[in-house]
Amino acid sequence: MSYIPNTETDRAAMLQKIGVESVDELFRDIPQALRYPDLRLPQPASELEVLRELAEISEYNLDLAHFPCFLGAGAYRHFVPSIVGHIIGRSEFYTAYTPYQPEISQGTLQTIFEYQSMICALTGMDVSNASHYDGATALAEAVLMAVSVGRGKRRKVVISAGVHPEYREVIRTYTQGMELTIAGEELAPLDATALAKLVDANTACVIVQNPSFLGYMCGLPALRTLAEATHTAGALLVVSADPISLGLFAPPAEYGADITCGEGQALGGGLNFGGPYLGYFACKQAYVHKMAGRIIGQTVDRQGRLGLVLTLSAREQHIRREKATSNICSNEALMALAAAVYLGALGKNGLRKVAELCYHKAHYAARELSAIPSFTLLSDQTFFKEFALKCPAPVDEINDYLLEEWNIIGGYDLGRDYPDLEDTMLLCVTEMNTKEEIDTLVEALRSMEESL
Amino acid sequence: MVQHLKDRRYLATHEWVKLDGEEAVAGISDYAQHELSDVVYVELPEVGDSFAQGDTMATVESVKAASDVYMPMSGEILEVNKALEDSPQLVNEDPFGQGWFIRFRPSAPQEYDALLDAEAYEKLCQEEAEKGG
């Protein structure tokens, strides 16, 4: 069966038009031996056979429905209400790319507008854009924006070592060639006071992650002092925050953030073998002209009817071009929609409940785990859903043991990114982890400790 | 009716500059604001910045374009029009008065003499309009 729609006559006409005798002549430059290589494919199989084979292969994967998981470190397993899949699976949303003729797509614009409104409510910021690719690129955009707000004269970026190590890498990649100085990563990840001392008149922004990569919350007084030092120097305070934590803890606006951004995967995105993710991004009104990406605004037409538009688009690449803060004007529309549906389905109280469950379960886990001899908590600081546990053996060995003997997916090896934190495991507990799972983890580590 | 005030000089890029003793004030012309249509944002330089004649000193955004605004004469910025932050429409309403952009100290006052006078500038605007802007 041929899938080529043109006829022999069509092909003859095309060949004649371009002055070639035959199709073979078109491929004359490709060596004979390479033209029809032997692909060594297996025998053809029926759809049923192929599905069976693929199902067999997929069973090699560990399935989070069957394996308790305590791994977080930037990608989180939270409950995704069924309505999220149903809404984002609708063909009107699922197939549409960023609208290039935006105002005709009122429905799409409305979902983005509502997403933006919810992000503002969550972060306390004045204005949100339509989203970025992921938390790392959103944070890198914050750096570009801060440099732009400083009119390119401020060339130093102060960044806490508590920021996700991969995000810091992405910031380096994004800003290479810009000749920025990046400072602060050598300091202890939780030391806001030491960070404040690095801020000077050349500083474009100060970046903290709260909760930090290690899971700990920075105290409000320390953050306010940092914000004050940052603003006194004329720089911007950028906060990368887990949006689920904002259901329980103070929004970054409350302690002086100028830009709040981060990874929105936790908001209805699920864990999908690496993506798609969602970079949320919001800032104070004063800086909106320097914000990358698109913003949807609500207005009325001449007859007073509600309408949604792309607003302030002079900031964007398509009008400002080389003057734009960033060349990114795409957004992660489908995942932004998922986040909006997720937040809408949970509501204010639901989100708080999710955050509380994470908090209490994580604290139960931390208490039980640190009661095992030779396992201790790295810090007694307040944490949200992740905490660092000092272990009596290398983290890799413990994880292998947990997986092989107990079918448990363990935590993240902090020694990979922090040389001082060898044999320290970052564990994540969300509302998805049952008490039984936590108790099994404790039992597993206890039995391992006894066999050491 | 587009105005071309005679008490100041102009650049072919549609900025105006008016001398005031040792200092000077600059903005964009009535013709320029008319061509841009509704101005929504003006990004101004900082006090203390120095520019050479022809450098980009500001950016003006309207509902249909973002344009650079050039320094009419070399000099140091003494004051910027803060009113434009909240009321960018002043550029449309009163481009030669309340819609001014910067006050600066010219470092080469002789540059003024080579600029276009109102008559020459008006002619230039007419030619541009005939060519279709």
- Span between termini of chain A: 65 Å
The fraction of residues assigned to DSSP E strands of chain A is 5-15%
At the fold tier of CATH, the topology name of the largest domain in chain A is Aspartate Aminotransferase, domain 2
Portion in strands of chain B: 25-35%
Number of DSSP helices of chain B? 4
Look at the structure and give the CATH class of the largest domain in chain A.
Alpha Beta
Quick check: average pLDDT of chain A? Answer: 92
Count of separate structural domains of chain B? 1
Kindly identify the CATH topology of chain B: OB fold (Dihydrolipoamide Acetyltransferase, E2P)
H and E order of chain A: HHHHHHHEHEHEHEHEEEEEHHEEHEEH
Low-confidence stretches of chain B: none
Order of neighbouring strands in the sheet with most strands of chain B: 1-2-3-9-8-5
CATH-level-2 architecture of the largest domain in chain A: 3-Layer(aba) Sandwich
Sheet having the most strands of chain B: 6 strands, antiparallel
Domain count of chain A, please report it.
2
First-to-last CA distance of chain B: 16 Å
In sequence order, what are the helices and strands of chain B, one letter per element?
Answer: EEEHEEEEEHHEH
Q: What's the helical proportion of residues of chain B?
A: 10-25%
The class by helix and strand makeup of chain A works out as alpha/beta
Extended strand count of chain B: 9
Question: How would you portray this structure in words?
Answer:
The complex is a heterodimer of chains A (452) and B (133). Chain A is α/β, with parallel strands linked by helices and 452 residues long. Chain A folds into 2 domains: 82-342, Type I PLP-dependent aspartate aminotransferase-like (Major domain) (Aspartate Aminotransferase, domain 2), CATH 3.40.640.10; 347-451, Aspartate Aminotransferase, domain 1 (Alpha-Beta Complex), CATH 3.90.1150. Chain A contains 15 helices and 13 strands. Chain A has helices spanning 8-18, 23-26, 32-35, 47-58, 82-88, 91-94, 106-123, 135-149, 165-174, 192-197, 220-232, 317-320, 333-370, 395-406, 435-451, and strands at 127-128, 156-159, 181-183, 203-209, 236-240, 259-263, 279-283, 295-300, 306-311, 376-377, 386-390, 412-413, 424-428. In chain A, the strands form 3 sheets. In chain A, strands 1-7-6-5-4-2-3 form a 7-stranded mixed beta sheet, with helices on both faces. A 4-stranded antiparallel beta sheet of chain A has the order 10-11-13-12, covered by helices on one side. In chain A, strands 8-9 form a two-stranded antiparallel sheet. In chain A, helix 8 crosses helix 9, helix 13 crosses helix 15 and helix 14 (395-406) crosses helix 15. Chain A is globular, with a radius of gyration of 26 Å. Chain B has 133 residues and is an alpha+beta fold. Chain B has one domain: OB fold (Dihydrolipoamide Acetyltransferase, E2P), CATH 2.40.50.100. Chain B has 4 helices and 9 strands; from the N terminus they run E-E-E-H-E-E-E-E-E-H-H-E-H. In chain B, strands 1-2-3-9-8-5 form a 6-stranded antiparallel beta sheet. A 3-stranded antiparallel beta sheet of chain B has the order 4-6-7. The radius of gyration of chain B is 14 Å and the shape is globular. The mean pLDDT of chain B is 93. Chain A binds chain B through residues 151, 289, 312, 314-315, 319-320, 323, and chain B through 40-41, 43, 46, 59, 61-66, 68.
